[in-house]
Amino acid sequence: MIVMEMTSRWVTFPAEGSRMSFVLFNGRLIMRVYTCKPEYLTKALELSDKKAERLLSRMSVHLHSQLVREGYSPQEIMAIQLQIEDEQLQDWRARVAQMRKQDRLWVEQNTHLANRSSLN
């Protein structure tokens, strides 16, 4: 569910459960605002220097430079990266579970490898 807040020509879309909000002006996307959940900020503050360095090394250079330009603190940047990685891990786990479920169905049906259709 997306909740809109309208003020004159500005529209803000806070994406529920997401790390981003979108700001529209006259129907054109002008800004993406990154947010992090408090639990990720706490995790980022607890990271050792070595783990923080590893975390930032996995981050996209473009995203990192954008967040630095927008004035995010290093802890906020690490929290956003932690949240991104957690979301990606959850997506990966869901895809693997789907593939395993499909594989079990094929085994139960005794489907030959040549007759199996892809998941996509």
UniProtKB/TrEMBL annotation:
Q: What is this protein called?
A: Uncharacterized protein
Organism this protein belongs to = Methylobacillus flagellatus (strain ATCC 51484 / DSM 6875 / VKM B-1610 / KT)
Classification of source organism: Bacteria, Pseudomonadati, Pseudomonadota, Betaproteobacteria, Nitrosomonadales
